[in-house]
Amino acid sequence: MDARQHFSALLEHLQAQVVGKEGFTLAYGAEVSSFIRFNQGQVRQAGDVQQIYVILSLYQGQRHAESKLALSGVLDEDLPRLQQIVLRLRGVLPTLSDDPYLRLNREAWRSELAGEAAPLDSAAMAQQIVVAAAGLDLVGFLAVGPQYQGFASSWGAFGWYAASSFNFEFSLFHDNGQAVKSTYAGEQWDAQAFARKLDGARQQLAFLGRPAKALQPGAYRAYLTPAALEELVSLCCWGFGAQALASGGSPLQRLFNGKAELSPLVTIDERIEGGLAPAFTSEGPRQPLRLISQGRAGERLVSSRSAAEYGLIANGACSGEYPLSLHMRGGELDEPDVLQRLGTGLYIGNLWYGNFSDLPAARLTGMTRFATFWVEDGQIQAPLNTMRFDDSLFDFLGPQLEALSREPELLLPGGTYGARQSGSMALPGALLSRFTLTL
Strands, E, within 333-421: which ranges? Predict the structure, then answer.
């Protein structure tokens, strides 16, 4: 029995269990993943994970209770366990108070998408990595395989999503202990595309043998790679949510209040097609949204609870009201021209430990990481010592933004705690006239 058949059988069983004015929703998540760790260019650990989790919510009027349950995929084992949860939730409901902001989507919507890409061969991918990494101290982690998500309700809603993807995060280490970090991710493994990624990292590795350059705190021209920009943008994603904006706690408050703008180069969408996330949430079908249009505030992400509390119209946003498939439009900067356009300044490959130093001003702080280089006259001169940055999103994506790279890079979440994360982000690199380092 495949995952979709399993989900459908669970749904059919539940539909026969509801009584009176009860209703239910069933969220389903499953994966069949391979995880492979590399050290010194060799496979050091490999394993497979197959797991299924469901979240069953039972409703009666304005009362609701939910439970999360791990399943085996064998119906004869799973149906009795699911029945026990129904009985348990049914016993809990009378003890609960009404939820004043409960707004259930009782529409009989349907959304179904299953990827048609060829199955990913983790063993073949690992072999290509080992061959390509010959002579390199490569440390990496490969996660690959299909993921499944489903959602259904007793009111006729049905959503199903299945897609295979891979995410290979790797670092090349120099003899002096410094490293270059890179990522290759997508739905279809392309050996040539991976070779280009590895070659780019190999070229940067050669510069790590040079004496590191120490800079004084100050503002410098800079180029942020897509990976570096992701660290900054991801910190602010929750700020597109209706609840954060209505309560005044969003880092994008000034943008949505009309008191600030970003560069006209900045257009950000929440996409349905082209990302790696279901076209639905537990709130209903997602909608494509223009979050920022040429530097100005656009639409916000609205869940049903925020719609009820603030008198808005829900648009299928997840309960956390953050983008699931964020896409930032690219610009006119070609990748081979980045160093020449930068001239003299910082080439920043990664940032980490990001946090807010002044949330209302969208001021972010953190550290440079791995391969960050000093560039003079369009040529890499030396690696930089680790430094702290502190700058505002309204500045470095505002008047300080000179150009964006032409092709946004697909970035997948690397988290595997509990399960592989889904969703995606597509970002270009950003050329800045100044970026502030503080110490």
Answer: 345-358, 363-376, 379-383, 388-392, 401-404, 409-411
Is residue 39 predicted with pLDDT exceeding 70? yes
Q: What is the pLDDT of residues 146-195, one digit of tens each?
A: 999 999 999 999 999 999 999 999 999 999 999 999 999 999 999 999 99
**What is the average pLDDT across 15-33?**
95
> What is the band of 424 on the pLDDT scale with cuts at 50, 70, 90?
very high
What backbone torsions phi and psi does residue 31 show, to the nearest 5 degrees?
-150, 155
DSSP 8-state class, residue 154: T
Contact between residue 241 and residue 317 where contact means Cβ atoms under 8 Å apart: yes
Does the pTM exceed 0.90?
A: yes
Length of the chain, in residues? 439
d(CA 87, CA 90): 5
Considering all CA atoms of the chain, what is the largest pairwise distance in Å, rounded to the nearest integer?
75
The dihedrals phi and psi of 99, each to the nearest 5 degrees, come to -100, 110
Instruction: Confirm if 224 and 218 have CB atoms less than 8 A apart.
Output: no
Measured CA to CA, the distance from residue 195 to residue 193 in angstroms comes to 5
Which helix (H) or strand (E) segment holds residue 424: the answer is: strand 424-427
Nearest to 420 by CA among 48, 80, 105, 81: 48
- pLDDT over 70 percentage in the chain: 99
d(CA 279, CA 324): 10
E strands, 205-358, are 218-224, 268-270, 280-281, 284-285, 289-293, 296-297, 325-328, 345-358
Provide the 8-state DSSP code for 398: T
Domain locations in the chain? 3-207, 218-437
Which CATH homologous superfamily contains domain 3-207?
Answer: PmbA/TldD superfamily (3.30.2290.10)
Kind plus residue range of the DSSP H or E element containing 229: helix 226-236
Question: Could you read off the pLDDT of 201-248 as tens digits, one per residue?
Answer: 999 999 999 999 999 999 999 999 999 999 999 999 999 999 999 999
